[in-house]
Amino acid sequence: MAWRGERTPIHHVFAYGSLAAAGGEPRVLRDHRRGWGVAMDNRQTIPGYKFYVDAESGDRPAVYVTFVCIWPERGASVEGVLLEVDDAGLAALDQRERNYDRVDVSAHLDGDGPVWAYVASADGRARFERGRREGTLVVARAYLEAARVETDLPVLPLLRRDVGG
């Protein structure tokens, strides 16, 4: 962990999806692949989280909404950016990225460590697989446009709704 000033710890996070839109220093994560592989259950209301509604009808579809994740794969690489966050920022990311586990990926990046990345949690992967089996796994159109990852999954015009905590 780096320090800015005397008392402000700075953490480094490798961002490869929606977090990368915040900008940052370009980096390449070695021996990892990026793709669809984590999901949330849109039927659940979780305080402090989100759900999605259909942009046209306003209805809340009973689907699993999928997001991009990374996983180890020898020889593959993922382009992303390195973000700097303080303790509060890291805690906020941990809360935001509830479908993921924060892991140290320093060994797969050039530069000083530690560097954290968010990888699909076991529960997030299980929801993805459940949605695929049930035929209810979808991608939100706006997320697809931001993530720029090809998909053969149904793409719906979904609007995000945040739930108060």
Low-confidence stretches: none
Topology pattern, helix = H, strand = E: EEEEEHEEHEHEE
Give the total of domains.
1
The top-level CATH class is Alpha Beta
Specify the helix fraction band.
10-25%
Q: What's the total helix number?
A: 3
- End-to-end distance: 30 Å
User: What CATH architecture label applies?
Assistant: Roll
Rg, alpha carbons: 17 Å
CATH topology, by name, is Hypothetical upf0131 protein ytfp
Could you describe the 3D structure shown?
The chain has 165 residues and is α/β, with parallel strands linked by helices. The protein has a single domain, classed as Gamma-glutamyl cyclotransferase-like (Hypothetical upf0131 protein ytfp), CATH 3.10.490. Helices cover 18% and strands 47% of the residues. It has three helices and ten strands. It has helices at residues 87-96, 122-134, 141-147; strands at residues 2-4, 8-15, 25-41, 50-54, 64-85, 100-104, 115-120, 137-140, 155-156, 158-162. The strands form two sheets. Strands 1, 2, 3, 5, 6, 7, 8 and 9 form an eight-stranded mixed beta sheet that branches. It has a two-stranded antiparallel ribbon with strand order 4-10. A hairpin with a 3-residue loop joins strand 1 and strand 2 (8-15). The chain is globular. It starts with a strand and ends with a strand.
Q: How would you describe this structure in keywords?
A:
globular; eight-stranded mixed β-sheet; Hypothetical upf0131 protein ytfp; 165 residues; two-stranded antiparallel sheet; 3 helices; alpha/beta; single chain
Short summary of the structure?
The protein has about 160 residues and is an alpha/beta fold. The protein is about 20% helix and about 45% strand.
